[in-house]
């Protein structure tokens, strides 16, 4: 993506932000079209932890992040169990589909996991560049401070998994980085679901993006690379389903209005794929390759295969490719390693 296109892309986001803010203020009853805008001020004091303490995402307890230690005494929370902390994205709220889908996947398929949302919605709204982007670091630093308290109180560091979508990926990155650099506590795994591109790449020009040094293992799923998502490798392992770019199979080819469901379809595939992997850990085999073209030409893609998603091999390194279905279930199993069809590969190799 050229700098001219990049700047134009940022300009479109800024214009659309203004439209959303004005429209939902004038017509609050239509707020559900964009997600319910938080009725809070833009303060770190208004960040919440939402602990899902039932069988679905409709059952939860909200705890101010500043009182994070309360979660350890909340019914249903077991500090000895694995804990997943999910970070939502730009202009998202706790009611967003992405949050609900990922939370429900864990609650139903991994009931012994503590599932927690970092609700930073009061700071993820407003202008993308002026407000939300700058807040990723503030939120990450504050979250790390309170996670350190939880860890000192018995939460198991080895069983803590941070997962972020889009802008939330970078909040997770800042959180892990702060824990590592300031408190000498290294997160075992951070998963980034199509980490946001604008203002984070190239690294350090505006903000620092999530990277492989933030945790012992950082896995990234790219589904809209160069659009809303990161255009380059950014983790220990990077997965590129269907090449990692828009348009993902099943998404509209023409969706010019920024931040609409159709326009975000490819970007959202990242959390849809990950949630499906929670329910079916072997749904997404992926093959190592230096490019999507090399992957497509590989007659033996099962060599070196690992799984994308929850069961990712943490000893793996580099880029991995696969193909998916255009609708749920997205995972094709081993067939996803053969974009031209397994029979054709076998026939041509004889």
Automatic annotation (TrEMBL):
Pfam families: Lipase
Cell location: Secreted
Gene3D superfamilies found in the cross-reference section: alpha/beta hydrolase
Entry keyword set: Secreted, Signal
One GO location term (cellular component): extracellular space
Position of the signal peptide: 1-18
GO biological process: lipid catabolic process
Gene Ontology MF term list: lipase activity; serine hydrolase activity
Domain Lipase: 51-330
Family: Belongs to the AB hydrolase superfamily. Lipase family.
Name by which UniProt lists this protein: Pancreatic lipase-related protein 2 isoform X2
The organism of origin for this protein: Galleria mellonella (Greater wax moth)
């Amino acid at each position: 993506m050229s700098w001219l296109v990049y700047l134009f892309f940022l300009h479109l986001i800024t214009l659309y932000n203004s439209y959303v803010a004005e429209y939902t203020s004038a017509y609050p009853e239509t707020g559900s079209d964009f997600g319910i805008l938080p009725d809070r001020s833009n303060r770190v004091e208004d960040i919440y932890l939402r602990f899902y303490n039932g069988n679905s995402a409709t059952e939860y307890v909200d705890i101010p992040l500043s009182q994070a230690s309360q979660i350890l005494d909340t019914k249903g929370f077991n500090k000895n169990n694995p804990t997943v902390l999910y970070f939502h994205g730009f202009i998202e709220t706790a009611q967003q589909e992405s949050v609900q889908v990922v939370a429900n996947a864990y609650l139903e398929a991994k009931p012994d996991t503590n599932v927690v949302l970092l609700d930073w919605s009061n700071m993820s709204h407003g202008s993308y560049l002026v407000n939300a982007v700058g807040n990723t670091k503030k939120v990450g630093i504050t979250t790390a401070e309170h996670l350190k308290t939880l860890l000192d109180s018995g939460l198991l560091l080895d069983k803590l998994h941070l997962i972020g979508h889009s802008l939330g990926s970078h909040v997770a990155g800042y959180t892990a980085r702060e824990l590592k650099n300031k408190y000498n506590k290294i997160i075992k795994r951070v998963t980034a679901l199509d980490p946001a591109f604008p203002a984070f790449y190239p690294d350090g020009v505006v903000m620092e993006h999530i990277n492989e040094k933030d945790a012992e293992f950082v896995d990234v799923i790219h589904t809209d690379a160069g659009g809303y998502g990161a255009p380059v490798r950014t983790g220990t392992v990077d997965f590129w389903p269907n090449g990692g770019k828009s348009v993902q199979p099943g998404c509209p080819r023409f969706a010019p209005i920024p931040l609409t469901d159709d326009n975000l379809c490819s970007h959202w595939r990242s959390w849809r794929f990950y949630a499906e992997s929670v329910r079916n850990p072997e749904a997404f085999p992926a093959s190592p390759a230096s490019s999507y073209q090399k992957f497509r030409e590989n007659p033996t893609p099962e060599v070196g295969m690992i799984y994308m998603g929850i069961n990712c091999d943490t000893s793996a390194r580099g880029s991995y490719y696969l193909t998916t279905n255009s609708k749920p279930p997205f995972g094709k199993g081993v067939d996803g390693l053969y974009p031209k069809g397994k029979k054709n590969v076998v026939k041509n190799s004889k």
